[in-house]
Every structure is written in structure tokens, then in C-alpha cells.
Specification:
Layout: H1 2-11, H2 14-33, H3 37-45, H4 49-77, H5 79-99, H6 103-117, H7 121-131, H8 137-163, H9 167-188, H10 195-202, H11 206-217, H12 220-251, H13 255-279, H14 285-302, H15 309-337, H16 343-371, H17 375-398
């Protein structure tokens, strides 16, 4: 086992592992506090969940703008600088949320913080693509997902203990982890953008770099891939919003049932994600997108038919396998399609396609659960994901056998 882990470690450059280790430190700090935002705001400012919901929406919307800003600056100023800047802004945002005393200022802090702290996302994704060979991309993004799930396994548990002492303490720890990560990256991580890519964008004005987004959107394969993802992603986000409410209201299941199933999903990702991705390496990426979409269709569609904890456990496991196939494969597809000098902007557009449904998911899922038979939400989810699978299959059949998406 140790020898196998050593072999996997040696397969990837040390700078990649440094980026993963730094990301783990930062993500643990972030998820340390995220589950307790609502508790903190409602307790400190004596406001309702509706007002807190506006904060979340502002953060999500400004985060989308931040990804667009960050993608352009990643290609213009470099990956390393943008990651460091995003970490510093993230730390400042956490400190501001800890110290602010007027709830009206929380709206401003959320909007500004979401804008600038999200700007580092495209740079991190571009760094992974810069550091790895093309045949390693899907596995590299899979490792990044494992790191994220490890953080989610650690962070909320520690945060729950510290929250009993002080919610404010969580914000200060989050700020500290961001600063520590910035120092690690500034000291040890090299700039990953090549000299040739830097030369192509260094001569462009910032306005010209932003106009490069029109060139990104003229990449027809990318646009079709992201439009199909835009069909599937609204269903995927219901996992985090509508599913726990559905389990409680339609099946009288206590909240800890949902929590235990999400923990199970996280464990599956940590244990299975990398070997699964390596096993699937011979298959064309779009074929894997078909498989991931169909697993989503089956897993989410099951909610409309099944009863009992064990069947929900099976549905969660199926969705988790769909997630493990679908998400890293899509990131790798975008990385393969992107010219090196435009990776930041390609990653930004991909990130926006992933995040945009998150703004509307509460209204979408909530409306269907409230106004109709709640099972219909899951019938429709199965149909929608099946449509996405058919679309990916059609795209795969139309592309040449020797094209950029013909193999992993």
C-alpha cells in the first residue's frame, strides 16, 4: 500500500503536490466556518433566514463576476499573483465579517468579498493544467476533489467544537489559514504560466484581455459542453438544497439522516475517486460525461420512487459515483480545449457555468416541492439528466476520432 502511494506521488510533479497541500490548508479554514454562517448572522444581528439568504445570493452573484475578473487577470498577470491576491482578499473578508457591527455593512462585505475572493478560482484550475501532462488532467482534477472532500471531513467537525467557544474565532482562524496559504504559495510555488504564454498576453491591454472572452465563446465545442453541463448542474445542486427538505417533509427523516448520507458520500470520494478515475482513463471523455449524466439521472430519479434509509443510501452512492465521473472529466475537457495563454478565461467560463445554477437552485427546487407533488421534482431531474446524456452522446458522435476529446 505504501509503495503504491509512493508510486502515485512520484507520478506527479512536486509543485502539483505543493499546490494541493496549500489548497488543503486554505479549504479547511473555509469549510471550518461555512456551515455556521447562518447561525452566526441570525444570532449576532437578530435577523431572519430570508435576510441571510440574500447574503448568500449576493456572495454567489458577486463570485460569478469575480471568476470573470480573475480569469482575465490570470492570463494577463499570471497564476501565482492571482492566487495570492485572492487569498489575501479572502482573509480580509473573514476579518471584516468578524468585526462588522452593522448588518447593512454585511451586504457590502459579502458583495465585495465574493467578488475578489472568488477571483483566484480560475488561477488554481489553470495551475493544475499548467503543471500536468494532458493524460494526467482528469486524475489531477480528481485529486483536487479528494483534497476538497478531506477538507470537508475535517473542517466542519473542528468548526463545531470551536463554535461552542466563539463564532468570531472561526472567522479569525479562516483568515489565518488564508494568510498561511498565501505565504506558502509566495515562498515555495513557482509561477506555472510559461514564458511563451506570458509573452502573448503581456502585450495586450486589460480591455483586450477581457475581449478574449468573445474568443472563448466562439469555441463551439466548449460552448456545447457547457450548455449540456448547464442542463445537468441545476439538478446536481438540488442535492444540497432540495434533498434534505424532501427527506424531512416527504419521508419524515430527521436531519442527521441526510448528514450521515453526505458523510458517506464524502468517504466514498476520498477512498474511490482516484482509483476510479485511473481505471476509466482509457475511455473517451465525452463517453464518461454520458455515464456521469446517466448515473445522476438514476440516482436523483430514484428519490421519486424509493422509501427507507437503505434505498436513499443506494441513491446517494449512485449520485456520488456520477459526481466522481462527471465533475473532474468536465474540468479536464475544458483544460484540453483551452490554449495555454487563455486557460484562465476558459476556466472562468467553466466555473461560471457551474456556479450560475447555484443562484437559482433554491427558487427552482423550492417551487417544485411546494407547488406540486414533490416526487415530480425527481422525475423531472431524471428526465433532464437523461437529456444531457443524449446531448453528450450526440456531441461525441459528431467529433472526429483524432480530435482533442477522442481520448483521456
Amino acid at each position: 500500500m505504501i509503495e503504491k502511494l509512493r508510486t502515485i506521488y512520484n507520478d506527479y510533479p512536486s509543485q502539483f503536490w505543493l499546490l494541493m497541500a496549500a489548497s488543503l490548508v486554505d479549504m479547511v479554514g473555509g469549510v471550518l466556518i461555512f456551515p455556521f454562517f447562518s447561525l452566526y448572522f441570525t444570532e449576532k444581528f437578530d435577523v431572519g433566514l430570508a435576510q441571510v439568504g440574500i447574503i448568500y445570493a449576493l456572495w454567489a452573484f458577486s463570485g460569478i463576476l469575480g471568476q470573470a475578473l480573475g480569469g482575465a487577470l490570470t492570463d494577463r498577470a499570471g497564476r501565482k499573483l492571482m492566487v495570492i491576491a485572492g487569498l489575501i482578499f479572502s482573509a480580509l473578508t473573514s476579518l471584516a465579517l468578524a468585526l462588522v457591527t452593522d448588518f447593512g455593512l454585511v451586504y457590502i462585505t459579502a458583495a465585495v468579498g465574493g467578488l475578489f475572493s472568488s477571483s483566484a478560482g480560475p488561477a488554481r484550475q489553470a495551475m493544475i493544467a499548467d503543471l500536468l501532462r494532458e493524460d494526467q488532467l482528469t486524475e489531477g482534477y480528481s485529486i483536487s476533489r479528494v483534497i476538497g472532500n478531506v477538507a470537508f471531513a475535517i473542517g466542519p467537525a473542528i468548526g463545531g467544537l470551536l463554535a461552542s467557544v466563539s463564532y468570531v474565532l472561526l472567522f479569525f482562524i479562516d483568515a489565518a489559514t488564508s494568510i498561511i496559504t498565501a505565504i506558502i504559495i509566495a515562498t515555495f510555488l513557482l509561477e506555472t504560466r510559461s514564458q511563451s504564454a506570458a509573452q502573448k498576453t503581456s502585450r495586450q491591454s486589460l480591455a483586450q484581455v477581457f475581449r478574449g472572452y468573445f474568443q472563448v465563446l466562439r469555441d463551439r465545442i466548449l460552448v456545447v459542453v457547457l450548455l449540456l453541463a448547464g442542463i445537468v448542474f441545476p439538478v446536481y445542486w438540488q442535492w444540497y438544497f432540495s434533498v434534505p427538505v424532501f427527506m424531512r417533509d416527504a419521508h419524515s427523516m430527521p436531519p442527521y439522516f441526510y448528514g450521515s448520507l453526505m458523510s458517506m458520500a464524502g468517504i466514498i470520494v476520498v477512498v474511490v475517486q482516484f482509483p476510479l478515475t485511473r481505471w476509466l482513463r482509457p475511455y473517451p471523455p465525452l463517453t464518461l460525461m454520458v455515464a456521469g449524466s446517466l448515473l445522476f439521472a438514476l440516482g436523483f430519479g430514484m428519490f421519486g420512487f424509493v422509501m427507507g434509509y437503505s434505498m436513499f443510501m443506494l441513491a446517494f452512492a449512485i449520485i456520488t459515483f456520477g459526481e466522481m465521473i462527471f465533475l473532474p472529466t468536465q474540468q479536464a475537457i475544458v483544460a484540453r480545449l483551452a490554449p495555454e495563454e487563455m486557460r484562465g478565461r476558459y476556466m472562468a467560463v467553466s466555473g461560471i457555468a457551474f456556479s450560475l445554477p447555484n443562484i437559482f437552485r433554491p427558487a427552482l427546487g423550492g417551487y417544485l416541492l411546494d407547488k406540486f407533488d414533490p416526487n415530480w421534482l425527481w422525475y423531472l431531474a431524471g428526465i433532464v439528466c437523461t437529456v444531457g446524456a443524449v446531448g453528450y452522446c450526440a456531441l461525441h458522435n459528431r467529433l472526429p476520432d483524432d480530435g482533442p476529446l477522442s481520448s483521456q
